[in-house]
Amino acid sequence: MALLTFKGGVHPPDHKELSAGSPIKELEPPEQAVIPLSQHIGAPCSPAVEIGQEVRKGQLIGEPGGFVSAAVHASVSGKVVAMKDILNPMGRMVRSVVVQNDKKEEWAPLQDNPDYMKLSPDELKEKIKNAGIVGMGGATFPTHVKLSPPKEKPIDVVIINGAECEPYLTADHRLMVESPGEVLEGLKILMKVLGVNKGYVGIENNKPDAIEKMREAASSEPHIEIVALEVKYPQGAEKMLIKAITDREVPAGGLPMDVGVVVQNVGTAFAVYEACRYGKPLIERVVTVTGHGIANPSNFRARIGTPIRELIDAAGGFTQDAVKVVLGGPMMGFAVSDLEIPVTKGTSGVLVLSKSEYAPAEKFGPCIRCGRCIDACPMGLMPSMLSILSEKGFYEDTKEYNIFDCFECGTCTYVCPAKRPIVQLIRLAKMLVKR
Amino acid sequence: MAVAKKEQELIVSVSPHIRSEESTSRIMWTVTLSLLPAFAMAVYYFGPRAVYVTALCIVGSLFSEWLVQRMAGKEITIKDGSAFLTGVLLGLNMPSSVPFYIPLVASFVAVAITKQLFGGLGYNIFNPALIGRAFALITWPRAMTTWFTPTAAFMGMDATTTATPLGIMKEEGVQKLLEVFGDKMTLYTKLLIGYRAGSLGETSVIALLIGAAFLLYKRYISWHIPVSFLATVGVLTWIFGGKEGLFTGDPIVHLLSGGLMLGAWFMATDYVTCPSVKKGQIIFGIGCGFLTALIRLKAGYPEGVMFAILLMNCFTPLIDRNLKSRVFGARKEAGK
Fold it and tell me: What ipTM did this prediction achieve?
């Protein structure tokens, strides 16, 4: 069967080989877990614990600040020793709860549900909400909100995003290879919650073992299809994934629900299963630690709140020519200099780039109007014009070129031969233009 | 062999953190390289004068770029290959017989005026090499239309002046052209390999197509402009090009003659001065083809590729503005 895809996109070297063969290892829980009260899109949580209080693993420590918010739980057992503001990867300060690990690994009471599939859609959704699950591909949008579409938007398809189109990252890959059944159960739960009887798992074709495992697991599931996708960035962007699999186009400015689709990440599906089956809140996730700046690229299951320094050390530390630490993938991730920044629900990878592989912020030239960015833009925009208008300060005019349809995937900037900071100029214009 | 790293040594910048290997100067030098077959054929047919004229254009272009950038206090960018490429293209657009000052003045007009004074790379409205050539043609009409027959020998030896195939066709008709070349097949073959009078780099269609194929393979150009350009010229010259009524023209002679191949593959595809969206490029190519055929068939000049491209350059911003790329998920516009 022909591989499915979308129009545009680029083929950066994916370097998945660095960590794709490394099984997920349990990472030693940290001495101190630093757990931000805002790890999601939406209202921050308010603290549900006080300094000095003993907490157990999985205990609620952050009360959701509204409907579009996600609960936060202790990832280790121990004592709350501080509440402090820490820098998050995006450069903002977030209130965080610091739990001193007592190494007892005592769980808060969890509700086991061997018959979870017999629960009602609302009960399942409640469990997902209580577990504090968010989109784990990096967007961190609260999952229960995505599962509550308004009545006038009927949903008929659920897609599990196993594209993992960001180069280097292999967290979703490993999860699909090692726990295909759990991911699939997660999808079935999501389908039940939404009352949908068509489910897909979209996987880029550079993960043949994941495709095979998932197909095996889904062999007796008539309503679930595992589809192989062309390897192309940004194949895993929601709109591109939906286009590739269902040939539906999310309208400009719209959401997947406008075409009857809900997309969830592989890690999210896994977390949904654990929440519904074992009542387990989201306190750990798979993180790829990779790049040519890392001695032994690996995949870890790390507790939320583990400083990234511990992940880097567990992966053998830096190599001689490591120059840049990125949280997430190389196309959309955030570079950080503070290695005390903790793993959060959206941390799919810790990428350490070496001198030879990272793109220095070099001098850039004028746009030569080669059109490479236009051909590559998955949204069909004209990034060249947007960058020129923004560079010259004509921010208002960028609206004529549909600036708000840009989701900042960075494809234009990747291909630009003049090395123009196109996506950066677009972000600038987005901030300065009057909506 | 873990290495301790101070946090201060880590680089922080915004995404994306990786970039493709492509660069402006790599593009310029690669396009220059793709002109090597045409240049080699120019040297083969026209001897050392081909090297001499092209070298003058390159030197003139580089000097002009350096001069204006220096006077304007801008960064000197002569190493990016852009001015070099303009020089090469200009050289390939010159007759072999021009006196030394024409390449120099033409390259100054091309690079200093057409490119740098309009804002430098990326901001020029017109193709610099073509403006340089147009200026020279209007200023020195005789020198710019004095063609030597190709000799494949050294300069001066049995070189005689002659008219270009298009010139012969314009003045005396296609019958005369066949008399000069023999029969139809010989004519086509000679046009294909380039054994005819003309500008240095325009004569050998084979050599130009090799270069163009290389650029297509490297995806440095796409088919949209050249194919729509050539197809339009072919169709229009077939319909209107004959003396015996409609549909009696010889499109093959038209396609293989003049500066069409050089213009369609290497000049009309200039990134800066052509539309950036594919559908706009097709309009641009059709416009170039239409104007070329119009000038060749109805105007005073035997050849129209240069003016056609320059005129279409004017429309590039308008085309880009009106034929934007289709935005993903754009709703069908109602009643517009």
Answer: 0.92
